Amino acid sequence: MANAVAIPASHEESEVITKPVGNHAAGNSRTCDTTGLPVCLTAQLFIRLNAVLGVVALLAGGIAALLIALTRWPAVHLLDPVWYYRLTTFHGLNMLIFWILFMEVGILYFASTTLLNSRLFSKGMAWASFVMMVAGAVLVDVTILGGKADVMMTSYVPLKAHSNFYLGIILVAVGTLIGVANFFGTLYIAKRDKTYAGSVPLVVFGATAAAIIAVVTLLHGALVMIPTWLWSMDILKEVDAGWYRLVWWGLGHQSQQVNVCAMVSVWYFLATLTTGAKPLNQAVCRGAFVLYILFINLASAHHLLVDPGVGASWKIWNTSYAMYLAVLASMIHGFTVPASVETAMRKKGHNRGLFGWLAAAPWKNPGFSAFFLSLLIFGFIGGITGVTLGTQQINILAHNTLRIPGHFHSTVVGGTSLAFMGLAYYVVPLIFKREYYARGLARVQPYLFAVGIVLMSLGMSFAGSYGVPRRHWDIEFTGAQFAPGFGSGAHVMLGLMGVGAVIAFVGLLTFILLTVAAVFFGKKIENRAMTPW
Amino acid sequence: MPENEEKAAEVFAHEHEEEEHKTPGTVVLTLALLISFAVYYFANWKALADVWHVR
Amino acid sequence: MAVKVHPIQRLMDNPWLLLALGIIVPFLSYTLWGWIDMASMPKATLP
Lengths: 533, 55, 47
Known about the structure:
The structure holds three protein chains of three kinds. Chain A is mainly alpha-helical. Chain A has helices at 41-72, 81-113, 123-145, 163-192, 202-232, 241-252, 254-275, 282-295, 312-347, 356-359, 366-389, 392-398, 403-432, 439-465, 488-521, and strands spanning 16-17, 29-31, 38-40.
């Protein structure tokens, strides 16, 4: 990779390079004092904007999360049914779609510019993407909170929301697609302008895999949302319920595969930043990403395992045989990421016993602890439950029970969100160039969030094993003729879920307050490296 | 990042140069994962067998 | 003399080919096959 040369300048951006470097125009790049990596200033602007909006969506979704959890905890049962379903819709979209997609577009811009020493392909496309995503997200949120879209995140037809709800989702999807196209454009100009030599770094390769999966996801989103939008305005007579479920899950689950891919790339990146680790074997790691590209999207089929419209061959092929190739990829990353950390730590002399390297790892660095806890939670809880629930025969035990949210909160929240929080502890000092306050609290935050999410996820999973349904306002069936039959065991587990949710919310709020304080009021980092964690 | 370490840019620039490595700790960690999976998977098949009698 | 690059390495260095495969494989296996299954489902007979 060609290294840019920093020339000090008397400019607001202290390390701005005043002559053209690589394919950067003069004055449009800087060299990071901490990492030595080149930063495109246009990309930096949009990484900042996307990160800020991501955190806003995280806060909105997080508040809804607490209120929903306190409703599902029968001892509290906080909200009335209307607001329970309204906020569940709101929570799903803000957390699973908006927080994640804003962060991912930021990650794509970062990976394709900084790690390839390139400028961003198009500033106009970045603006178009950002404005559409913000407009869409605001439209969706306003429509939901206005009581015109109590249809849950999945919005299964024939449940009908106000047309603005579907329009908002289409805007977010198209905006994200433009962001992804900007990423591919940047890959193109970086190669054309020879800003790097040989193959792209592994993190960029992982980001490319995430971007490819995002394209498939967003095409499915357009395919399902445009007819549904027309139907909501009575232009189209009907949308077939089975067809909708098939195509919608091509959006709904595949978007979570974008998360997986982006999260794994963030693991590799944080492993490098926090321990100096480098990939053990490029061919194996990249091969695993290719398996994701080819096979991970088929996993969406497990949502349809009890649907009558698709046959057993389709179900078993997509959720088992082909899907296991993507599981293999996750197991490869689950080995190579900690192994690269072990190798790096052993090289530094931490060779005592089997786990001396792990004990000596930088656990006080929130970038490391968030990444490693994310790896453990994703693998041990998310991965194991995911493969089990995705098995056609076992699925019948768990379908539509709380075991399902128990699984995906350990993948998307304990895995992806926690990894993205770890990333933020570097993005703020390196891209926003601001120091965090209350660093002691920041060191504790990943643990607090991880403990909360683990308790909540296990509580949900075990309550689901007792048969407690998902998305249900009142499992006590207050006033019904018959008792529902959930014993004390289920109630203990729902209590565990509630306590975990409160702890996780405190962890989330701590993260947001620390990050907002740092971004807007943090000590500026000029002409020096960030204070090491 | 501690001051005595390589800058990230240097690690990325040399990431294709693979080295000898021994990772016994990670092998044990991943075996623990596989055993946990086997136990959970078996327990689920057992639970299914308990409620779904084949006659 | 040009260095001979392994075909799999060439695949990995070609994001456009990966993009095409990444769209085609899930579309055929999940979406199109699913549509065919749904379209070939016989209509339920009313009692």
